[in-house]
Amino acid sequence: MYFGRLERIELSRPAPQAGVLPLNYSRHYGHLYHILGNMRKILGKDFFKEKTLDIAQSLLGKYLVSSIGGKVIAEKITEVEAYVGEHDLASHSSKGKTVRTEVMFGEAGILYIYLVYGMYWMLNVVTEKKGSATAVLIRSTEHFKGPGVLTRELKITGKLNNKTASRKNGLWFEDREEKILLKDIKRTPRIGVSYAGPIWSKKKYRFLIKK
Q1: Does domain 21-209 have CATH number 3.10.300.10?
Q2: Which of 3, 33, 194, 208 has most Cβ atoms within 10 angstroms of its Cβ?
Q3: Are 75 and 173 in contact (CB under 8 A)?
Q4: Contact at 8 Å (CB) between 173 and 165?
C-alpha cells in the first residue's frame, strides 16, 4: 500500500452552487435542499461488499463527503488504488493480521486510516466480506491531488480509523448520479509499491479518471 479550486456554497443569499453545504443549509433553501437530497445516495455496507476491483472502479465519480467546521465539503473522487487481499504483496494485509492491519480484516465500509512518514494520513475503505483483508485507497479528488494532501485538506486523521464511513462519523461516500464511462478510466500500476516484487508491483490496480 502507498507509504509514503474548492467548490463552495457561501452562506449569503445568492443561489447555491455545487460543493460545500452549510449544515443549516436547509433552513435557507429548504425546498431546493430536498430536491438535491433526493439526487444523492449515501453508500453503505452493501456497496462495499462487492469485489474490490469493481468497487475501486465504481468509486470514480462518487463523492467523498466530510463534515468540517460546521460545513459539509464534498469532493468528487478521481483516483483510487485497489488492494485485493493477503496474497497481494503490495497490501499491508500480506503480512497477516497485526495491530495495524486488523482493521482490514473487518466489515465492509470500515475506514482504514494509517500514518506514513510521521505526517501523512492515508484514507482507505475496507471491502468485501469480513476476513477478506481487502481495501481501496482514496488517492485523489477533483481538487486535492495526492492521498496526503487530500486527508490534510479534509482534516482526516487516525481518529476515524476503524470507524464506519457514515454521516454520523463525519465522513461518508455519496452517489450523485454522475456516470464515468469506461473509455474515460485509465488503469496503471499502483504508486510506490516496488517492494511487492515483479508481479504484484505491476498489477494495474490503480484507477483514475482521464484528464
Answers
A1: yes
A2: 208
A3: no
A4: yes
Assign 82 to helix, strand or coil: strand
CB atoms within 10 A of CB 84: 23
Question: Could you tell me the residue ranges of all domains in the chain?
Answer: 21-209
Written as nine digits, the cell of 92 is 499491508
The per-residue pLDDT for 68 is 65
Beta strand 71-83 pairing with 185-188? unpaired
With 0-12 / 13-18 / 19 or more C-beta atoms within 10 angstroms meaning exposed / middle / buried, residue 90 is buried
Tell me the pLDDT tens digit for each residue of 165-207: 999 999 999 999 999 999 999 999 999 999 999 999 999 999 9
Which triple of cell numbers denotes residue 89? 504483496
DSSP annotation of 46: H
Burial of 99 (0-12, 13-18, 19+ CB in 10 A): exposed
